[in-house]
Amino acid sequence: MTEADLPAAVRALAAERRFERLRPAGGGVEFQVFEAAAPDGSKVVLRFAPGGRYQSNPNDREVDTRSLLRWEYAVAQHLAGLGFPVAAPRELVLGEPDVLVSDFITDDAGGADQAALGALLLRLHHCPLPPVRPPAATRGQPAARLVPGRIAMRFAELAALVLALPAAPPAGQLTAVLAPRPAGSLLHLDVRAPNLRCTGGTVRALLDWSNALTGDPAMELARLAEFALLPGNGLDYDAILDGYRAAVPVDSAAFWIYRLDAAVMLALLFNSEAAHAALGPRSVDRLREVHQRLNRKLGSA
Question: What residue numbers bound the domain in which 292 lies?
């Protein structure tokens, strides 16, 4: 998407705020991001959903992008007030489309010191929770019920695309395993190089809080374990764990449930909206491996 492709409302907002030199700065499944220069010489980013407020994709049905931006605005504002490194939000402009305006954070392309990243995540997991509820996509469910339900839904979606896919483990069994786990931490759940802004190895901002939830810190570490298998994510899982310096049940049934949640999300992503000739089949193979590991853990529980 170029500046000329921007929705008229976004171009009007930029003109009203006298933002100049708009240029693409990234994007994902629901959102696009543009960098711009503010009148005072500072740089900002504009984040919006070009596909409209209500969207749907194989991984997430009935996505309300307004609720995601409101959540992201509230979380980033809360964490900025605690001194946690985020792109501080400047304003959330509701319209067609909604636009979140935040500080632009520079980066030296050197990546994050991985042990320091682990320490930062431990700090996140001990932060007070934001004074707002997660977006409606969670339907108010605790992670112990949300995760098994979405695993089942995503397995069903993937089964329409992939032959001989194993059945998802029974949701009730997964819920029973997860119910005793702690559930009171803020989790980012999309920690990877594209969402980090660093200089000299220090993380200056952890970006994109639209996937954040409150739940079990082990869920964050399990997702990192699966993300680290993809070189483009720029993660060293062992070094992150070393920096995290807290006990993580990395070989428990609960941990493998969280890994299955990440693995089926990635398999569906790489076989649908972000279809990839190599990563598609590889992600399904990985899903089968995680599924087998979890079955063994559940069988021995």
Answer: 114-300
Same domain? 160 vs 221? yes
| Angle at 76 (CA atoms; ends 258, 27), nearest 5 degrees | 70
What's the whole-number mean pLDDT along residues 221-234? 97
| Structural domain total, the chain | 2
Tell me what pLDDT residue 138 has.
61
Q: Please say which residue of 35, 69, 103 terminates a domain.
A: 103
Among the ranges given (70-74, 137-141, 151-155, 204-208), the one the predictor scored with the smallest mean pLDDT: 137-141
Q: Are residues 223 and 86 both part of a single domain?
A: no
Q: Do residues 27 and 170 both lie within one domain?
A: no
pLDDT > 90 fraction of the chain, expressed in percent and rounded: 85
- Please tell me the distance from the alpha carbon of residue 47 to that of residue 61, in angstroms, as a whole number: 21
Last residue of one domain, picked from the residues 103, 129, 150:
103
Shared domain for 131 and 240, answered yes or no, is: yes
Is residue 251 domain-resident?
A: yes
Q: How distant, in Å, are the alpha carbons of 49, 193, 210, 269 from that of 13?
A: 15, 30, 22, 32
Q: Is residue 108 part of a domain?
A: no
| End-to-end CA, the chain | 50
- Interval 237-249 mean pLDDT: 95
Give the CATH number of the domain where residue 87 resides: 3.30.200.20
